[in-house]
Every structure is written in structure tokens, then in C-alpha cells.
């Protein structure tokens, strides 16, 4: 009986370790005002160490400005946000934020799609697609472009 209990414990521990994955929290308002900058904060908790690339997809017609980089390289290409972290540690968390502005005439619903790829030092690749974050474009939430200090610097 003790051997069976020990075997079950080893199997449970192994399954929990294999099922471990990174966690991502995307924090923003559910409704974004068209023509206004809306803040998005992202926190990633890493379960694997190595190189990491996080992407989010937006519909066409959105512009963005980085707020805090969290030690990563944040860039925008077309309708996609890229955050690259050259060397994250197992158990490490990173936090970054940015502002997104839907075009003034936009309205409707869309989802922010998020994906994280971590490549460990052992050349193992861990890919995680996260639950979509629904957003409604309507109303007057967010900051007008005149209120954005990041834009005034440029």
C-alpha cells in the first residue's frame, strides 16, 4: 500500500510540473472611447527561464504608445504588439503597459488575442495562447491625445 501511495505521489508531482505554464494578466477597461488613449497593463509570470516573446493582436485602425517597458523591448508592427524579453528567470514576473487608441470613427466589439513563446536554454519551446480579452469600442473612456505626455515629447 505504501508503494502505491508513493507511486501516486510521484505521478501527481510529475503531472503538475508538466502542466505548469506561464500566466498572463491583461488589465484594462472593458470599454474604450474611440479617438482616446486607453491604458493596458500586462503582467507575465514565467514558469520557464529563457528568451520570451509576447504578442497581442489588434484590429486595423489602432495606434499605440508604450508607457512602461518592464525591461523588455516593446514594438508595434501593423496591428500587432511585440514585447521581447532577452532573459527571464523561472518564477520571475514582468510588468509593462501601453496606451492604445482606436480611430475616432470606430465602434463595436473585438478581442485582444495574446500569445507567449518562451525558449529555454535547453532549446525547448513553450508556446501558450491565452484567453481572449473582449473590448467594446464606444463611449468616452480614455485620454484625449492632448492629455498624453508621451505624444508631447515627440
Report on this model:
This protein has 154 residues and is mostly beta strands. The protein has a single domain, classed as Sandwich (Immunoglobulin-like). It contains two helices and ten strands. The chain has helices at 2-19, 149-153, and strands at 23-27, 31-32, 38-45, 50-57, 62-68, 73-77, 80-88, 93-102, 108-119, 125-137. The protein has a six-stranded mixed β-sheet, with no helix packed on it. A four-stranded antiparallel β-sheet has the order 1-3-8-5, with no helix packed on it. A hairpin with a 5-residue loop joins strand 9 (108-119) and strand 10 (125-137). The longest helix is centred in the N-terminal third of the chain and has 18 residues, at 2-19. The radius of gyration is 19 Å and the shape is elongated. The N and C termini lie far apart (71 Å). The relative contact order is 0.26. Mean pLDDT is 85; it is low at 13-19.
Explain the layout of strands and helices.
Layout: H1 2-19, E1 23-27, E2 31-32, E3 38-45, E4 50-57, E5 62-68, E6 73-77, E7 80-88, E8 93-102, E9 108-119, E10 125-137, H2 149-153
Parallel strand pairs: 2-10
Antiparallel strand pairs: 1-3, 3-8, 4-7, 4-9, 5-8, 6-7, 9-10
Please tag this protein with its features.
mainly beta, four-stranded antiparallel sheet, 154 residues, Immunoglobulin-like, six-stranded mixed sheet
Give a summary of the structure in a few sentences.
By secondary structure, this protein is mainly β.
N- to C-terminal distance: 71 Å
CATH level-two architecture: Sandwich
Average pLDDT number: 85
The 3D shape can be described as elongated
Number of strands: 10
Order of helices and strands: HEEEEEEEEEEH
- Within the largest sheet, what's the order of strands? 2-10-9-4-7-6
Q: What's the helical proportion of residues?
A: 10-25%
Query: CATH class, anyone?
Result: Mainly Beta
Percent of residues in β-strands: over 45%
Gyration radius from CA atoms, angstroms: 19 Å
Instruction: Could you tell me the CATH topology label.
Output: Immunoglobulin-like
Main sheet characteristics: 6 strands, mixed
The low-confidence parts are 13-19
When the domains are counted, the total is 1
Report the structural category. mainly beta
**Can you count the helices?**
2
